Amino acid sequence: MKQALIIVDMQEAFFLDSENYLFDYEKVLDNINMLITGARNSEVPIIFIQHTDSNKDNDFAFGKPGWDLYHGLLRQPEDKVIQKTTWDAFYQTELAQYLQEQQIEQLIFAGAQTEFCLDTTIRNAYSHGFHHNILVEGAHTTLHSLVLKAEQIIKHHESVWHNRFVKIQPTTFYKTK
């Protein structure tokens, strides 16, 4: 089954101010970079999703320092970057067409934020016919909310997604292949 690694919204905005630091971000970044290395070694295409806000004052607005993909990611020029303007990486983007052209059958997900863009994209991927997707444990994260701690948000979404929209795999996913 031909795969693609999709990394959602790992952008500088989450690393510029301690108030916006993603939960457990150092571990998550290490795990994402391990996935990138594994994908590259397995010749799996790597797709970075980049949120682009239409509000020019937003940290995620085109050209703002927070808009750039995080400098600590092991990104290469040949990696695909797809900009999105909503929580859904499929909505009015080239993602579905690109996956079809590349004959991708299985998506491997990582990134941020668990309950927003990652959740919306994972569910829509299933609606687009990708029914055998993978989410790597410890390779996605979010911020604390007013109601729940980030750990609770992550665990809740993993319990909803697992064996429905994705199969959750350990961080050693590529090492065990």
From TrEMBL:
Its EC number is 3.-.-.-. This is Cysteine hydrolase family protein. One of its GO terms (molecular function) is hydrolase activity. Keywords: Hydrolase. SUPFAM superfamilies: Isochorismatase-like hydrolases. The keyword Ligase does not apply. It is an enzyme of class 3 (hydrolase). Residues 4-143 form the Isochorismatase-like domain. It comes from the Bacteria. The lineage of its organism: Bacteria, Bacillati, Bacillota, Bacilli, Bacillales.
